[in-house]
Amino acid sequence: MLLNIRFIIKMLGGMFILETLFLLAATAVAFIYKGDDVIPLLQSCGIMFGTGLVCYMIGFRANEYNVGRREGMLIVTLTWIFCSLLGMLPFYIGGYINTVTDAFFETMSGFTTTGSTILTDIESLPKGVLFWRSLTQWQGGIGMVVFTVALLPIFGGGAAQMFDAETPGITHERFRPRIAQVAKRLWGVYMILTIILCCFLWAGPMDLYDAVNHAMTTMATGGYSTKNASIAYWNSAYIDYVITFFMCIGATNMALIYFFFNGKYGKLLKDEETHWFYIFVAGTMLIVTFYLMQKGFAGSFGEAFRLASFQVATLVSTCGFATANYIPWGPFFWLIAIILMIICGCAGSTCGGFKMGRFMILTKNLLNEFKKRTHPHAVVPVRVNGHALSDEVVYRVLSFAFIYISLIVVGCLLLMVDGVGFEESIGSAVSAVSNTGPGLGSVGPVDNFSALPDFSKWVLSFLMMTGRLEIFTVITILLPGFWKQ
Prior knowledge:
A two-stranded antiparallel ribbon has the order 1-2. By secondary structure, it is mostly helical. The protein is built from 22 helices and 2 strands. Its main location: membrane.
């Protein structure tokens, strides 16, 4: 069957038109603070809306019923690419980022909620552009495409394919009969949590502007800050613990949080993946706390726990905020950091990474293999929440694990060929595929990616997008079989 190109163009046009609303919000902030970014933002709005209108008109009479998984995967992938190309315009037109490579890298890092930055002086940017930078992460957190699905009745058709292609996780629990209703309710939960966090931050030492920006990038588990020193700027235990708590919330399955808000507490409290995640996080926090005390990086248990809990939460949630430079903490913590950056949070959360659900399935499958050594004829299925998983799901997780590690290895090799150091290559590749933000070495939590060669930045941009879309979506498009009729 031929691809429904007109429908793809129509949906992209609808996405660009909706994206203009977010650019207008950033423009309003620029007007309020009377910054020099008003004109660049308005020009970007015009280009974004004009492009969207042209695309929508081209596909206006598209067949909305001849839509399948291929169209969904293409729409999602092209959305991330073209929204990053158009979303970089405020940075580039305003002269705040001088090269297309850097502007695209910064914007892709925003939309994919990676949080890696090439900016060396964040505080020099005007308020409107910084607000747009935070907005890119807030949209990417729950998924730009999920947002479009929520408003899909305006444009018509194709919701299921787009939802399946974009939403992260192993399986998707459709707790409402229509996909658009699912998306609306997930966005509702996401907005409520963002507002609650904003109020908590505003009650502390942050002003309203900083509270709004950090609430958006925390719930998105993105990590963009309005300060060069990130969260360390405030040096506040209150801010550290509030953001630590909400980073963990952001790494929890949003559908289960929705059920929790609706009084169905058991779905969240009895969920096996959630148990594994919080036990893993709590255990790692304690290990790092005692390590920091033993090595003299903290003078008391309270100080060590505050440092450890924040760094563990920011890495495992793929948020990427910083309150300390963990590079001097040594190889022991570096290895822990890599493990946290790979495993990450729960399926259905806003974070990237391999996901705790897949790690849990792999672990249980491994234990079952040991049982089969002594009882070769036994049928021992992998069970999650009391239900036996099909072999297809287990095989899919094994396949994902293989391609996930392969993508990191290929990324490392490409970066090393481009002259990037060993530590930086490993840290950058893992960070990009997992959408974590900081890496190791000279791209650690208090540094940035500005010194990397241009080719490496394009490689990392591709890895960020591929990791955000759960790898299979992007890689499938690159295979010849995808394009066959």
